[in-house]
């Protein structure tokens, strides 16, 4: 778990506000949810994410990426030549889901912020985290690697603390 107390407070506020703005149908399903601290603990390590983008014609596209829940935000990468990278450059709105069967579901909407390439101030710390996880720099995975962080505007979680394995 990498989140500070302040980040957990912010994440909890986002979770509460998102659920309160959701439909009655969704609220009826999400009746056993995790706190921000429980969620952060459950999302340690690499998590497979489904990332949904949209084409220039407004057609949805979905693909999977390695995701890391780091300081209350999803961080994920891909090849700069991938369709999702092209979509995110033009239209950074994105939806992200991490699902572990019926045990845990994390659904987020927001904006993908590019971390690399560039001079984003958080990139060195993110790169250090990713390098420790993979045992080598993820930039060695290809010639044109890009990394994003989801700045969520909505996030809903289902699952129970007793049900979620780390």
Give the gist of this structure.
The protein has 166 residues and is α+β, with helices and mostly antiparallel strands.
Distance between the termini: 11 Å
Give average pLDDT, whole number: 92
Task: Categorize the overall geometry.
Answer: globular
Major sheet details:
6 strands, antiparallel, barrel
Which structural category fits the helices and strands?
alpha+beta
Describe this entry's structure for a reader.
This protein has 166 residues and is α+β, with helices and mostly antiparallel strands. It is built from 5 helices and 6 strands; from the N terminus they run αααβββαββαβ. The protein has one domain (5-158): Electron Transport, Fmn-binding Protein, Chain A (Pnp Oxidase, Chain A, Roll). A hairpin with a 2-residue loop joins strand 2 (60-70) and strand 3 (73-79). It is globular.
Question: Secondary-structure map with pairings?
Answer:
Layout: H1 5-20, H2 24-29, H3 36-42, E1 46-54, E2 60-70, E3 73-79, H4 83-90, E4 93-100, E5 104-116, H5 123-134, E6 145-158
Antiparallel strand pairs: 1-2, 1-4, 2-3, 3-6, 4-5, 5-6
Task: Summarize this structure as a short list of keywords or feature phrases.
166 residues, alpha+beta, Pnp Oxidase, Chain A, 6-stranded antiparallel barrel, 6 strands
């Amino acid at each position: 778990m990498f989140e500070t107390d302040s980040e957990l407070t912010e994440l909890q506020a986002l979770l509460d506000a998102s659920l309160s703005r959701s439909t009655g149908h969704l609220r009826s399903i999400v009746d056993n949810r995790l706190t921000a601290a429980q969620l952060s603990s459950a999302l340690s390590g690499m998590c497979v994410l489904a990332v949904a983008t949209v084409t220039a014609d407004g057609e949805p596209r979905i693909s999977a990426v390695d995701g890391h829940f780091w300081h209350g935000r999803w961080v994920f990468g891909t090849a700069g030549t991938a369709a999702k990278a092209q979509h995110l450059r033009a239209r950074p709105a994105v939806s992200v889901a991490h699902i572990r069967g019926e045990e845990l579901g994390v659904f987020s909407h927001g904006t993908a912020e590019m971390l690399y390439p560039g001079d984003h101030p958080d990139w060195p710390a993110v790169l250090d985290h990713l390098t420790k996880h993979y045992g080598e720099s993820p930039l060695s995975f290809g010639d044109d690697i890009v990394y994003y962080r989801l700045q969520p505007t909505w996030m809903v979680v289902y699952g129970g603390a007793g049900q979620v394995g780390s």
